[in-house]
Structure formats: C-alpha cells, structure tokens
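Thread: Newbie trying to understand structure tokens

Hi all, I'm a second-year student working on a class project, and my supervisor (Dr. K.) asked me to get a predicted structure for one chain before our next meeting. I've only ever worked with sequences, so writing a 3D structure as a token string is new to me. If someone could post the tokens and maybe explain what I'm looking at, I'd be very grateful. Here's the chain:
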Amino acid sequence: MSPDPLLVFDRTTLRHRRERAAQGWESHAFLKREISERLVERLDDVRRRFALALDLGSHGDEVAAALGERHIVDHLIRSDFGERFARRAHGPAIVADEEHLPFAAGQFDLVLSAMSLHWVNDLPGTLIQIGRILKPDGLFLGAMLGGGTLWQLRQALTTAESEIDGGLSPRVSPFADLRDAAGLLQRAGFALPVADSETIDVEYENALALMRDLSAMGESNLVAERRRQITRRATLLRAAELYSERFASPSGRVTASFEVLFLHGWAPHASQPKPLKPGSAAQRLADALGTSEQSAGEKVERS
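---
Reply by user tm_fold:
Sure, no problem. This is what the structure looks like when written as tokens:
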C-alpha cells in the first residue's frame, strides 16, 4: 500500500518527544514563552471578556502565564498531547490530540494555541474542529511555526548531506506558508480571517547547540518519511561548519530564524460585519478619491 499523503508527521514519535521534553522544560521554554506572550498581546485589542477558554497545546502553562493579570478569561482549560505536560498545569487540564478534539460543539468562547498546530497532519480538519467547539462569535487565536523557520539549518544540512552522504533526506520539517494561512481559516468556516507573520531570531553558540535545543524542546524533525538512521558525525560537523561560515552574527555566535504565523478568526455570528453586495455602495470610489471615473469599455450585453 502507498503511504497516506496526509500523514506528513510522525505523531507517535511526537508524543514520545513531548513526554521527554516535559522533564526539563523550564530550561528550554524561552521560545514558547515569547510566542505565547505575543499571541496573548493580540487580545489587548479585543474589548470583551471570555467566560471559558481553551489552551490547545499548553506545554508548561506559558499561555496562562501570559494571560497573567489581564482578567479577560474567567476559566481556562488546558490540553496537551503529552500527559506529563497536562499533569504540570496549574489548573484544569486534559490529555488531548489536536487532530481529534474531545470537546462538544459550542463549548468555548475562546481557543488559544501556541506552538502546537504546526505538527498537525490535517490542519484544515483541525481548524474545522476548533470552529465547531467555539460558541457563535467565539474567537480563535493561534500561533504556529511557518515555512521560513530554520531556513539556515535547512540550507546547511542540505549542503553537508550532499557532500558527505551523496544524497538528501528531509531533515527539517515542512510547515505552512503565510499565503496559505488565511485561506485555511476561510476554508474552515471562520469569519473575518486574518493571518500575519513575525520572525524571531535566536542566537546560539553554534549549530550543534541549536540542534540540541530543538531536541530538548521536542521540536526536531518529525517528517514521517525521514531517514531513520542516526546522522553521521561527519555530516553534523560539516553542517555546523557551514552554518558558522554562512550565518555567524557579529558576536561570533550563529543566528536561527523562527517564522511564526499568527492566525485570527471568529466563529460566524449574525452580528458580525459582512461585505456589501457588488453595486450597493452609496458613494462612488472616484468621488472619495477626488478623481474622475474612467470607463473600462462598453458593457457586454447578455443574450
């Protein structure tokens, strides 16, 4: 049988890595903290209070910490793919798979997700499920790693593998692009979908330190068709050498870029603004711009 084209990521391995990462999480949680803070800051522009919210992929409770003293969420439920992360939550928590959400329809006023959805195989399907568990006019805010993440590491590993091993294998997981993100929200049925991206640059002593950190965070390569053999030492050392040559910062350290896609969408509700029907405008655009209107040609008569 041919492999399922939807199974891009090995989520069995993801669960094992998530459990292992929970043991020493505080030493490697800086990226999750930063992304959670940036995600929650976007609630500052939303003038409402949320009675019940879900933190989807809670890790070490960074979203709850970012909510802090804002007092805009009355009750927060945490869920995580790893049992050890769920057990360390400072509030109600369950173990849940993002691909199979165990919640009834219309339960939450707000769903937040930071650094979890980029490991989902069927992202449109998961977004549909998120929309289903939201109440009408409920809000979804998500942050996931995008396609520009770790482009430096990808380049260095590709060159090193070509030189040392004479071939290539997927070493850095593929993630969604910004141009697709808003479209995915719209396909999933969200109203007023918005997507934007930010890049977080992190400095490391060298590429090997970066790879160790990714492993400790449970964020290393999870492509289902990745090469399963241990990478040769010579390949890793050559990749680290290339990385230092090409991407060293003025401090002598190396830079790793993480592209973060921020997704924003509302569960549909009758009170939300809707686009006007074509031809229903009360004022001409030319009048608003102070210009004269130019004809685009004769109108075609329909037979």
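A couple of things are worth pointing out once you decode it. The chain has ten helices and seven strands. The beta strands are 50-56, 73-80, 93-95, 108-114, 134-145, 191-204, 254-266. Feel free to ask follow-ups in this thread.
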